[in-house]
Amino acid sequence: RAARGPLGPTRGSQGRHVRSYSHLQGDIRMRKLFSFQKFFLRIDKNGQVNGTKSKDDPLSILEITSVDVGVVAIKGLNSNYYLAISKKGEVYGAREFGVDCSLKERIEENGYNTYASAMWKNKKRQMFVGLNVHGKPLRGKKTRRKNRATHFLPIVV
User: Fold this and answer.
1) What's 60's domain CATH number?
2) Measured between alpha carbons, how far is residue 10 from residues 16, 49, 70, 134 in Å?
3) Which CDD domains match (predicted)?
């Protein structure tokens, strides 16, 4: 059978059903990311990324947008900077959306989410967004999925 139009299933060259996830793209969620270390992730007006204990900090309100299956862009609503991880593992705020800004979102066994660079790895290991006990961003090269410093609870704003 031939592939059908936008309503029916489409088949790839192997005849298998090709799933379309286009409905997931562009989905925008307003969240605060509450770290396991009890900080809200924030991106300030200069693009600095850190944690705050204040639940009322307007710079901790984030827009999480799906850009691909399991991949998100996180933007500070009030700072207009994107959360990014450089090739060297530095966590920073990027003015424009670029390769550093695509983050793999994964829900861990404990119910917390982790955010790893979708583009960069360090020695074949993923690099995660994380905050230390003082609310400072960790270098991606030092982070691991099991490390609780990289665990965040998305809280609906």
Assistant:
1) 2.80.10.50
2) 9, 43, 22, 51
3) beta-trefoil_FGF7-like
